[in-house]
Amino acid sequence: MSDQQNVYPVRDDFAANAWVDKTKYTAMYQQSMDDPEGFWAEQAKRLDWIKPPSNIKNTSFARDNVDIRWFEDGLLNVSANCLDRHLDKRGDQTAIIWEGDDPKDSKHITYRELYTRTNQLANALKELGVGKGDTVTLYMPMIPEAAMAMLACARIGAVHSVVFGGFSPDAVAQRVIGADSKLVITADESVRGGKHVPLKENVDAALTREGTDVCKNVLVVKRTGGEIDWNDGRDIWFDELVDQQSGECEAEPMGAEDPLFILYTSGSTGAPKGLKHTSGGYLLYAAMTHQYVFDYHEGEVYWCSADVGWVTGHSYIVYGPLANGATTLMFEGVPSYPTHGRLGEIVDKHKVNILYTAPTAVRALMAHGDNVMDSSKRDSLRLLGSVGEPINPEAWEWFYRVIGNEQCPIVDTWWQTETGGIMITPLPGATPLKPGSATTAFFGVKPALVDNEGHLLEGATEGNLVILDSWPGQARSIWGDHERFIQTYFSAYEGMYFTGDGCRRDEDGYYWITGRVDDVLNVSGHRMGTAEIESSLVAHSAVAEAAVVGFPHDIKGQGIYIYVTLGDGIEASDELKKELTQWVRKDIGPIASPDIIQWAPGLPKTRSGKIMRRILRKIAANECDGLGDTSTLADPSVVDELIEHRANQ
Ligand code: PRX
Fold first, then answer.
1. Which candidate, 111, 338, 460, 492, has a CA 20 to 30 Å from the CA of 191?
2. Which residues are annotated as a binding site?
């Protein structure tokens, strides 16, 4: 229980210099609840508006009318907020520090350089016929051109859809079609941990799929110079086109509710859904959370180790930090290459003050023992952050003690692709920390716990995490499918946004996220739908049926456990397991790699044919004694068989 946990009080020296201390947090939070319109109208002044908004909040979570609009009559341009307005004061300040996969590769890009290159790219996009409202798919390595591409789209009012560079050609194709993208921006190859990933080849393969002929051009950054095929008339070298453009491109005035980007994420059913984020509210929320949660001060070096393919990279590598005129570090590689000391070495090399990373990275380092950090001092660090999955208290303590030298508060930030920015989090100058708890709500966020019938639960308790009112960073819809948006998030509990997470609240009102309560897995902080992996498997000719569940994994948080029923006459073999593993990797991407495949002669089903995942999860976790009631199963004997096979793993 929480009261037996270590509590880390706010350090006086930290609170004295922080943007927000306890008194200020209480007052601001209260104001954000009592007078949301007044609170957000004031906060909106942190952005540069072409036309300041007068209509602040217009939102409804009612099932029959889910409609979310913020700052509706305001006009702004997101890229101008991230670039132009910094030129006078900090044109020569570093905007992006790029650290390559190879420790010898790094470079600094000033705000002025980023401005000019982004403007050139924006002009290049126009030359390719991309304009306001068009969508562009980005499938890129962690290189500055990725940030430039996002900002260039924003500059001309195009909508970007970034696809994580680890996804397969099919996943790229699905997203190009879903977003109706006329352009894909990619690179010849990406480099991670010394290995080259053939991005262009994957795009070539993706664009052979039916329905992708909407895509007319592929803009290719030369990252490695590796050999690639070339499709004349479609493919264009990035530098060749961009170099010849003017460095000035007028920023398109955009409505606050015009879309800024689409980002695909997995749900419990169906294909991944493209969440739609809009311009004004999103940018304001990303910037404000970046300033307060990371207590960002002018001149500091800030490093978020996520990939731009995920929402964390959007909000906390690119938009939040750049809107605040910060120096943001972008790392191409992985923390384990060339050695496990790399993370700390990067901190020392660039004098990083704030480090935001994922529990899985912390646990992977922790597994190598305390000495793994011996090659660095990390004495520039002032604050640490965690995101993506629950951080177990042991990993939290190790992060604090070994990486942070017991000098840095840790902000454990809970949020989602759908929320656009951080929702439940400590503010380091205001909130005493409890390892493993994301603590309390950010300004304007109204979390609550409900039981399965939607009754609000009070006090110290456990339940389903919902949010009771809108906040500016919230996704507005699912691209092209508002009905699915309503079904997924607003149909379970009337008038509330359902997060899909389970959560405990302790006697101090601190929130402890317990993980997903739906069929979504969180593997190394990557979100994946069990249904997606299952449908990939059943597309293999040997597979009659498949069920996918998560199981506790020391490093990844959750691993992928697959039960497979083979078709009639198909022989089970280790070769077939390997083949199925490759199949899923190829179909979805390496992040969906199965950890364990178990042959299942039958799956536990109710008499109406529904697979009882609860039982499969227990068997996968090796908790076979607590299976609960199996009497409603059509054939309870399949359970014994599965347990017996489990023992043989
Ligand atoms: O289950 C929660 C978990 O990650 C999910 C959201 O995943 P995604 O949309 O990919 O965004 C990840 C980065 C924001 C949530 O529903 N999650 C995220 N942060 C935390 C977390 N679980 C516990 N603690 C966190 N700090």
1. 111
2. 192-195, 312, 388-390, 412-417, 501, 516, 524, 527, 538, 540, 543, 585
